[in-house]
Design brief:
The complex is a heterodimer of chains A (322) and B (607). Chain A has 322 residues and is α/β, with parallel strands linked by helices. Helices cover 46% and strands 17% of the residues of chain A. Chain A folds into two domains: 3-75 and 103-210, 3-Layer(aba) Sandwich (Rossmann fold), CATH 3.40.50.300; 219-319, Magnesium chelatase subunit I, C-Terminal domain (Helicase, Ruva Protein, domain 3). The longest helix of chain A is centred in the C-terminal third of the chain and has 17 residues, at 257-273. Chain A is globular and about 75 Å long. Chain B is mainly α. Chain B has two domains: 2-156, no CATH class; 272-597, no CATH class. Classes of the chains: A alpha/beta (322), B mainly alpha (607).
Chain lengths: 322, 607
């Protein structure tokens, strides 16, 4: 695949998704970039904004199978990964038969992931990171490509189990689903309340997605850009001498090396989308919010003053020299 | 492909370096203008900016090329230039990445180089490194205007504050020059009276200055006692005259001269009628003051004479009693008990002193006090009187030198180192009109007769000199000469014979210290006693200090007063230290002069 083909495929998928999804350009692009990079996405937004429809549309566009898991407090790990059941054949013999869980789909929507218990969350997050699951002592590889989109409601926090920092770090991007604007709402109503709902025709396959990911990893990035990404991650740590004042004041813990990896991968994909074969500092800066907002943990003062991690990251980017 | 990228990077490096040089030159120009302004102000405030300073000020312009060199110093490599060009042109690190991966054979790297070359060829490097004229021009304009305004104003006007008038080393020259200028000015105006007054003032100042200089030379010369003319004769081992500070009065500054000139001009700016009235008042005042002064002195001395005559009569009676007692002591065992005789003598003299003080206080009536008050009002004429006195004393000193030479030629015996010398000295003093006082007088001064008397001691007559008193106080005779001096020493003042006051030692000092500036009547009395040569050195110094403070407090101090006070000290020392070497006639003349000049020091009758 050439860069031009990369850009053409990417654009086709975006256009296909946008036949169903109105607005949410950044969310759609972010999800596609994460799929190309082989990462997972955490979507945060109130219910009813089309998160499930977005994920299903992505699967339809790539001809990938899609599964949705509604996380509830009584959800068990086996409900995600699957289990072995005793099954009697026609001869009356009883054998253990594997019943795969929804995690064995290529695109998995973990809806309201913070409502499940930590044990169930861990089972899901293990599959996200290891791309494999263990069922009754037997390990099974997940299909490729494998893409998990988790959602969480930022408002209804009662009875939830917020994801721990170590599990948040497993998501490549954290994308914020904004409420649609008036024109977007009008378009949504026009598409869904008049006539048949639009359908998505597949424009790419799983192989195309893997090829796009392989091409993106070949994008050139010079040392100064890599150094900038590293310095950016280090700047999120308050114990670092180079950290800006806002970090030292409001941040309890900064991004992990996975954050730097996400920055570089995202910058490379964005460079291809911008028509370049080299990543630049601009690409890193453009993706800093999506990569770092869930990896920066605020301290008590930051939480008490209502400081958002997006504001902290924006200040860090503006304060960090190129 | 890569050549285009490298060429663009090199162009960017050159343009960047040029922009930095221009920026540095502009910064240097700003610094130069600031330096010119500061230096111009500094020169103006310190010594005045002049046209000759403009050349050195322009040296600051060397900061322009220096700033350009410093700013452009340091190489700019291609990656750095490419990165800067990427940043300024918004090329998203295309040029830098192409240069960094120039040798990368990957297909994507080749595609990247092609992409970078296309953007490099489409980029105008010169526009990427502009010179920020807008940021420099306003500042430079302000600094240029400031520099021109400062320099121009400093050259045109005097921006520095007026320097304080420097202390003038020779204020007399400026004073005389000021008088000369004033004379010229009044000559042009035709004011002959003012010219005459100023001419007199100029002449007076010159005369006073000449006398002061001459007196200083003489005093300085006399400060070191000359070696004895005859080694065989022991000179009187008097202590050297006390060190005297040289003219410690306040220095005349330019402010004083300016004030004096202003006051003089103000006075001389009077109308003709006012000037005539002022001159008339001054002359009348001076004459009246002189007359009142003389009258006051005469009255005070008359009262003192009456008092001292009465006191001398009492002393004579006491002295005769003591003489008879002394005769008995010489032939009795009481000679071993000197304390007894001393106590008796002290008791008698203390009574006499108390009576004398009471009489003086009682006799200073209203009339004397009024005369004394008038004398204060005429202190200016007294000052002039003292100036004349200084001149006369200089003549006396000159005559003393002549008289000493005559004495050496005549070989007159006035030394008192042995018994024969005492006789000779006594005869000489008697010939000169001096009289002797007995042991009573010496005992009244606080010294026991045994300490002064030698084996062939004669009864001391007349008050002992200051040196002898000091030796008595210490109780250690200073040698044979001192002993002989104690035996037969006489006072230089003939009127001092028989008038010794036991309170003239510490009692007089206490009295003087207790005097207030307004009580100058008693101060004048003390001066009269000082003229009689009966005052110990420490008391005399206290008196002179008192006199100086008195005049300063009264606002009457002047340079002539300082000279007079200094002279009093030196003249007294001179007279005492040369008491036995000066011709008696000269001493008589000098003492008479003292008596006639010193306030309250008119000659009193010798009982």
């Amino acid at each position: 695949m050439t860069p031009d083909e990369f850009r053409a495929t990417f654009v086709r998928i975006e256009q296909s998704v946008h036949r169903v999804i109105v607005g949410m350009d950044d969310v759609v692009r972010g999800c596609l970039m994460a799929m190309v990079a082989g990462g997972n996405v955490l979507l945060e937004g109130v219910p009813g904004l089309g998160k499930t429809l977005l994920v299903k549309s992505l699967g339809d566009a790539f001809r990938l199978d899609f599964a949705r898991i509604q996380f509830t407090p009584d959800l068990m790990p086996a409900d995600i990964t699957g289990t072995k059941l005793v099954q009697e054949d026609e001869h009356g013999r009883k054998t253990f038969v594997l019943h795969k869980g929804p995690v064995f789909h290529q695109i998995v929507l973990a809806d309201e992931v913070n409502r499940a218990t930590p044990k169930t969350q861990s089972a899901m997050l293990e599959a996200m990171q290891e791309r494999q699951v263990t069922i009754v002592g037997e390990t099974f590889q997940l299909p490729k490509p494998f893409f998990v989109v988790a959602t969480q409601n930022p408002l209804e926090m009662d009875g939830t189990y917020p994801l721990p920092e170590a599990q948040l770090d497993r998501f490549l991007f954290k994308l914020l689903v904004q409420f649609p604007s008036l024109p977007q709402l009008r378009e949504i109503l026009a598409r869904t309340t008049a006539g048949a709902a639009p359908t998505i025709e597949p424009v790419a396959g799983g192989d195309d997605l893997l090829a796009m990911g392989a091409l993106a990893r070949q994008v050139l990035i010079k040392g100064s850009v890599t150094d900038y990404a590293i310095r950016l991650v280090l700047a999120t740590h308050p114990e670092q001498a180079e950290a800006p004042d806002i970090t030292k004041r409001y941040v309890r813990y900064g991004a992990s090396p996975r954050g730097a990896q996400a920055l570089i991968l995202g910058a490379k994909i964005r460079a291809l989308l911008e028509g370049r074969e080299n990543a630049s500092v601009d690409d890193v800066q453009a993706l800093a919010g999506a990569v770092l907002r869930h990896r920066v943990i605020l301290n008590f003062e930051g939480e008490a003053e209502g400081v958002s991690t997006d504001a902290v990251v924006a200040d860090i980017v503006s304060a960090l020299p190129r | 492909m890569l050549e285009a990228v490298e060429s663009t990077a090199r162009s960017a490096a050159r343009a960047w370096r040029r922009a930095r040089a221009i920026h540095g030159a502009l910064g240097g120009l700003s610094a130069a203008l600031i330096g010119i302004v500061l230096c111009a102000l500094g020169l103006e405030l310190t010594g005045g900016l002049e046209a000759r300073h403009l050349g050195p000020l322009l040296i600051w312009l060397l900061a322009v090329p220096l700033g350009a060199l410093l700013a452009s110093a340091g190489g700019i490599d291609l990656p750095t230039a490419a990165a800067e060009a990427d940043h300024r042109a918004g090329l998203s690190d295309r040029l830098g990445t192409a240069l960094e991966f120039a040798a990368d054979p990957a297909p994507l790297a080749g595609l990247q180089r092609v992409d970078a070359a296309q953007f490099a060829q489409a980029t105008s490097v010169a526009a990427l490194f502009p010179v920020a004229w807008r940021a420099h021009v306003p500042r430079l304009a302000v600094l240029l205007v400031l520099a021109l305004a400062t320099t121009g104003a400093a050259l045109t006007f005097q921006l520095r504050p007026s320097a304080p008038p420097p202390a003038i080393e020779e204020p007399e020259d400026d004073l005389l020059a000021s008088i000369d200028r004033s004379i010229d000015a009044f000559e042009e105006r035709g004011d002959k009276e003012a010219v005459r007054l100023l001419t007199d003032l100029d002449r007076t100042i010159r005369r006073i200055r000449a006398r002061e200089d001459e007196l200083r030379r003489v005093v300085k010369k006399r400060a070191v006692p000359p070696p004895p003319e005859d080694a065989e004769h022991d000179t009187l081992a008097l202590p050297p005259p006390p060190p005297r500070p040289e003219d410690q009065g306040p220095r005349i500054t330019a402010d004083d001269l300016a004030r004096l000139e202003e006051e003089t001009v103000d006075q001389l700016a009077l109308t003709d009628a006012q000037q005539a009235e002022l001159v008339s008042d001054l002359f009348a005042h001076s004459r009246k003051a002189s007359d009142l002064m003389q009258q006051f002195h005469h009255e005070v001395m008359h009262e003192a004479e009456v008092t001292l005559n009465a006191e001398s009569a009492a002393v004579r009676n006491t002295s005769s009693g003591v003489d008879s007692s002394s005769g008995m002591v010489e032939n009795s065992d009481l000679v071993d008990n000197p304390m007894l005789s001393q106590q008796s003598n002290n008791g008698a003299t203390n009574n006499i002193a108390d009576e004398r003080e009471d009489m003086i206080r009682r006799d200073l009536g209203d009339e004397s006090q009024a005369a004394h008050d008038r004398s204060h009002d005429t202190q200016e004429s007294f000052n002039q009187f003292l100036r004349d006195f200084v001149k006369d004393v200089q003549d006396i000193i000159a005559e003393a030198a002549v008289g000493k030479q005559k004495k050496a030629k005549e070989g007159r015996e006035v030394q008192v180192d042995n018994g024969q010398g005492v006789v000779d000295k006594t005869d000489a003093m008697a010939d000169a009109g001096f009289e002797e006082v007995g042991d009573v007088k010496r005992g009244q001064q606080g010294g026991p007769p045994e300490e002064l008397a030698g084996g062939n001691a004669q009864p001391a007559q007349g008050p002992p000199p200051e040196g002898a008193q000091m030796s008595q106080g210490s109780g250690t005779p200073t040698g044979p000469r001192m002993q002989g001096s104690g035996d037969g020493e006489t006072s230089a003042g003939a009127e001092g014979a028989g008038t010794g006051n036991p309170d003239q030692g510490g009692g007089l000092s206490t009295l003087l210290n207790g005097l207030s500036p307004q009580q100058s009547g008693r101060l004048e009395q003390a001066l009269g006693q000082l003229a009689q040569g009966r005052m110990p050195p420490e008391t005399r110094e206290a008196l002179f200090d008192r006199l100086a403070r008195h005049k300063i407090n009264a606002g009457l101090a002047s340079e002539a007063d300082d000279v007079l006070v200094d002279y009093f000290a030196e003249a007294e020392e001179l007279m005492v230290s040369n008491a036995d070497t000066l011709p008696p006639l000269f001493r008589d003349y000098a003492q008479s002069y003292f008596d006639s000049i010193r306030p309250g020091g008119s000659k009193t009758a010798n009982p």
